[in-house]
Amino acid sequence: MKDFLKVLRRYLPPYKKVLLLNLLFNILAAIFAVFSVVMMIPILEILLKQDSKVYELVPSSFTMADLKNNLYYYITLLKAEHGPGLALLFVGLFVLLGTFMKVMFTYLASYTSVGIRNGVVKDIRKDIYDKIIILPIGFFSNERKGDIIARSTGDVQEVENSVMSSLDMFLKNPVLIIVFLTTMLVMSYQLTLFVFVVLPFAGTIIGRVGKSLKKTSKEGQNKMGYILGIIEETLSGLRIIKAFNAEKRISSRFEGEVEGYRQIQNRLMRRRDMASPLSEFLGTVVIIIVVWFGGVLILNESSGLTPAIFLMYLGVFYQILAPSKAFSSTMYNIQKGMAAMDRIDEILNAKIEIEESSDAQSLKEFTTSIEYRNISFGYNDQTEVLKDVSLKVEKGKTIALVGQSGGGKTTFVDLLPRFYDVNRGGIFIDGVDIRELKIFDLRELMGNVNQEAILFNDTIFNNIAFGVDNASMDEIVEAAKIANAHEFIVASENGYDTVIGDRGSKLSGGQRQRLSIARAVLKNPSILILDEATSALDTESERLVQDALGRLMENRTSLVIAHRLSTIRKADMICVFHEGRIVETGTHDELIAEGGIYHKLHSLQS
């Protein structure tokens, strides 16, 4: 319950005005519900022939005693002139009016709570998405993509279905219970105090069963995250699964996981389904005890409790059982939903390791050099990927990074836009530590072309314009021409408005890469990072892409990771990485003459 209230404190403040309106409607609905029940007392007294005859009308007043006196005066008058039948109809019209007002305000309360509930769910979804965008790349290295998707979709849906759908009950039922209990105290304080003693025992039993739901529900949501991870891996690796005839193996793995999920859900739903019969049985027990004690009070004439008032007391008590029962069911739902909220909070509360300092400097232009000073970095505390590396890159120079896989080349360039922060040492642009710069300004200086062209399921126009606001068609076409992409774009079905499918699946590898180059051309960055941009292409596509890259790199500072050494022969400097260190530097000819690691790699490729 404490966790639920924390969630409400986080997300309800923007809806304070609507919340107050909802509270007002719930109070009015509860008052008219009581009015409808209380108006049954005169009807019962007439039917039981125990009604008091009142022959004197008192001046208008809003005290309960005077209102009751005047009501009974008119009932007495009607009975005397027209008989008890019309008197019953007269009181029945009041009951009808009270019921109409009750259902109207109940609807208005539900109407306002819908806006609150859906607004909170929207805010949670947006918070998750915004947090995913700003979390460092390292966070996703330790998490399953399917589990992240499960938290962003299934867990939010569970919060919507369990917690937020219970919000209406949570806002309404306490008001109803308070108003009904107050009415019961007015009718008979002895009987109500007795109820206060009996009810907590029933509530304790229901509460203990509810607590066990949260743990089981969290197990189920974790398992669903794992299942979605398997589905995501299957879709991504379907070609390999078929190529290695592994359908049976992957299906068996999936079956084991869904069977585990089935067993968890069985336990969860059986405990949840226990809520209604348990609360109904305990409610019946309480009613029997209350009827017994009420009968004792009626027989004791000094208590002042009449049969008609006692029957109405039971009517009000029955009215309080419905919200109490719904409240207990709400507690079950909330426990189940809070397990999902805990998993969501693991994302929302994840530490943002790449933080911008409060006095970060603005940098709009790159003027002199990039310098790596004695940097060391590891993805964990056990292993260092880069060890005491230093390198200075002058503006306008092309620096090629080569070496065996796992040598630290990609990590080296990923540190420059602060995808990660160094463990020791520092990286400086124009003499300023990049940790002291605004992250937006830092990354605005750079353009990336990666081995895998990362495109979106959108139009070609929007993919090229990605990250550049208000780009014109002329600018897009010019960037595409520089990237050797214009010809295949205009030949496509809808030209620049062609939707390219998931990750650009409707395009060839070379076409995807040329679109990513066009995107970098349009951004017009001062610093260019190329990570194996041509390694996955055929000879013809590589020639087109290499030609486009040549145009893109003109008059720019470039860091180029390459396995095909033929593509970086003209680099101003080549750095050879080996086991996290730069072991050789020089031009192509100088390194060949040295006869070291670079010479060996070149010989193998030749």
How is this structure best described in words?
- The chain is 63% helix and 10% strand.
- It is α/β, with parallel strands linked by helices and 606 residues long.
- The chain has two domains: 2-348, ABC transporter type 1, transmembrane domain (ABC transporter transmembrane region fold), CATH 1.20.1560.10; 368-445 and 561-606, Rossmann fold.
- The strands form two sheets. A six-stranded mixed β-sheet has the order 6-7-8-3-9-10.
- Strand 7, helix 20 (539-553) and strand 8 form a beta-alpha-beta unit.
- The chain starts with a helix and ends with a helix.
- The mean pLDDT is 79.
Which helices and strands occur, and which strands form pairs?
Elements: H1 2-11, H2 16-38, H3 40-47, H4 64-82, H5 84-134, H6 137-141, H7 145-164, H8 167-187, H9 189-236, H10 238-243, H11 247-273, H12 275-299, H13 307-348, E1 369-377, E2 386-394, E3 398-403, H14 409-414, E4 424-429, E5 432-433, H15 439-444, E6 446-449, H16 460-464, H17 473-482, H18 486-490, H19 509-523, E7 527-531, H20 539-553, E8 557-561, E9 573-578, E10 581-586, H21 588-594, H22 597-605
Parallel strand pairs: 3-8, 3-9, 6-7, 7-8
Antiparallel strand pairs: 1-2, 1-4, 4-5, 9-10
Helix pairs in contact: 2-5, 2-8, 3-5, 3-13, 4-5, 5-7, 5-8, 7-9, 7-13, 8-9, 8-13, 9-11, 9-12, 9-13, 12-13, 17-19, 19-20
